[in-house]
Design a protein that fits this description.
The complex is a heterodimer of chains A (about 220) and B (about 250). Chain A is mostly helical and about 220 residues long. Chain A is about 85% helix and about 0% strand. In chain A, helix 6 (about 90-120) crosses helix 10. By secondary structure, chain B is mostly helical. Chain B has helices spanning about 5-10, 10-45, 55-85, 85-120, 125-150, 150-185, 200-230, 235-240, 240-245. Chain B is globular, with a radius of gyration of 21 Å. Classes of the chains: A mainly alpha (about 220), B mainly alpha (about 250). Chains A and B meet through helix 7, helix 8, helix 9 and helix 10 of A and helix 5 and helix 6 of B.
């Protein structure tokens, strides 16, 4: 447990030394969300309908932006190899890095989303639900994305490759995340969606550190 | 009779076996396809509701089956490759992927050709169409990853991992898209046709499915042979092959 906290704190501290990288992913999210009303038109009814979907797609892309750096820096300076050699279980270290990735790229989106949702004329209930689904869904993105990041470590054109690998795997999260808000606004109730998001989160948390450490061993053998 | 699995796991032995098998499989595929097409276009009557347009199912349905089965086969070889660490498994997965991608693409394309006259639209966001599209993306992702990594052993193992992760996700994606579809709007068109299909149509479809199976096995044998001699080109046994002897590596 101690080592998990150590890894998370280390990654957070490293990220705070280079704030621009964290901030640029957040501003990317804000800019993408602002582009849609400009492209589609300012009618409130239309914006209200597309809002949850747009914000979810934006969150997907923003959390992917930070993925290519998840292992890259540690790989370059050799820290990753030390992690592989360390006596601590690799999956625990990987879980720490995933957690740090989520705290830096997922959590800011959860906090920002309600503000951006206001621009899309979402009601308070919908805004709360949007945040809740992002809170449950973005960790899954970090989990699945970390596997992609580990597999493409040090590979030519890794950044684009990650998106091709992991975006198809993000589909279930997107469907239930954005679907929850739309189910609420159409009067169906969102409980089923939220339960399923949670059901996606738990196995992802359980299996992905394991798959991710296997991928790291393949990349660094 | 026992099959010596591990004997054929060695590339030189499998190279010889695949060389003997693939012409027969290719011929079988040709014969079965001719028979299937003859039944499909010659013997089977026009459908009561869909007229002549339904005949695309003789290609569309078997092609869709193959696109799913090949992904499962890739996952199977990937598990074998990661557990037994055999070189051949990675090559089999690599050889299967382009064929699977082709079948997934053909499935989407023939589906569009069928959808236009039947539903009046080239594309609808139906659960099956959408998950087939995502399956196609998964094939592309696999091929992009393996071709981006220069070291073949690492490429094989990385590809194996993403193939397994993808195979676990395929059912989740299918059900999520299905729910998404039903929750959004009532499906205006349903793909489920009546289960009572004329016997002759069923035969045509089965023959075509067998033809595509034989084709896949033949092309995979052929492609694996190419992969084997490409990767083992410095080995003595490859240099001694009559088909390689004259060529400088």
């Amino acid at each position: 447990m101690n080592i998990l906290v150590t890894v998370v704190m280390r990654d957070l501290r490293l990220a705070m030394r280079r704030k621009s990288e964290v901030l640029s992913a957040m501003f990317f999210f804000v800019v993408v969300a602002a582009l849609f009303p400009l492209a589609i038109g300012p009618e409130p009814a239309m914006l209200r309908q597309i809002g949850p979907g747009v914000l979810w797609v934006g969150a997907l892309l923003a959390s992917m932006l930070a993925l290519s750096r998840l292992f890259e820096v540690d790989h370059r300076d050799g820290a990753l190899e030390q992690m592989l050699l360390s006596p601590h279980p690799l999956w625990l270290l990987v879980l720490g890095k995933m957690l740090a990735h989520w705290l830096l790229s997922g959590l800011p989106l959860v906090i920002l989303a309600p503000v951006l949702g206001l621009q899309f004329h979402l009601s308070p209930d919908e805004l709360a639900l949007l945040s809740l689904t992002l809170l449950l869904g973005t960790p899954v993105l970090s989990c699945i994305g970390a596997i992609g990041a580990a597999l493409t470590l040090g590979v030519r054109g890794g950044g684009v490759l990650i998106s091709l690998l992991v975006l198809p795997l993000f589909v279930p999260v997107l469907v239930f995340g954005a679907g929850a808000v739309q189910a609420l606004s159409s009067g169906l109730g969102a409980q089923a969606h939220v339960s399923i998001l949670l059901a996606l989160l738990l196995p992802a948390l359980f299996f992905s550190p394991w798959a991710c450490s296997a991928a790291l061993r393949i990349a660094l053998e | 009779m026992t099959i010596r699995w591990f004997y054929y796991a060695a590339p030189p032995n499998f190279y010889a076996l695949a060389g003997r098998l693939w012409p027969w499989l290719a011929a079988l595929a040709g014969i079965l396809a001719l028979a299937g097409l003859w039944i499909g276009f010659g013997l089977a009557p026009a459908d009561a509701q869909q007229g002549e347009g339904y005949r695309i199912i003789f290609v569309h349905v078997p092609v869709s089956w193959m696109s799913m089965i090949i992904y499962l086969a890739m996952a199977f070889w990937s598990i074998l490759g990661l557990t037994f660490n055999t070189r051949l498994s990675g090559m089999m997965t690599r050889a299967l992927a382009p064929t699977g991608a082709m079948f997934a693409f053909l499935s989407l394309w023939t589906g569009a050709l069928w959808g236009k006259p039947m539903w009046g639209a080239w594309w609808v966001w139906d659960a099956r169409l959408t998950s087939e599209l995502i399956l196609f993306f998964l094939y592309l992702g696999y091929m992009a990853l393996t071709s981006a990594i220069d070291d073949v052993r690492r490429a094989d193992r990385a590809g194996a991992l993403i193939a397994i992760v993808g195979a676990i996700n395929v059912p989740i994606i299918y059900f999520s898209v299905k729910w998404w579809n039903t929750l959004h709007q009532g499906a205006s068109v349903s793909l489920t046709r009546s289960p009572s299909m004329a016997q002759i149509m069923l035969w045509g479809m089965l023959l075509m499915a067998l033809a595509f199976w034989a084709y896949t096995l033949a092309i995979v044998c052929y492609r694996v042979r190419s992969l084997i001699i490409e990767r083992e080109r410095h080995a003595d046994w490859v240099q001694a092959l009559p088909e390689v002897a004259g060529v400088k590596s």
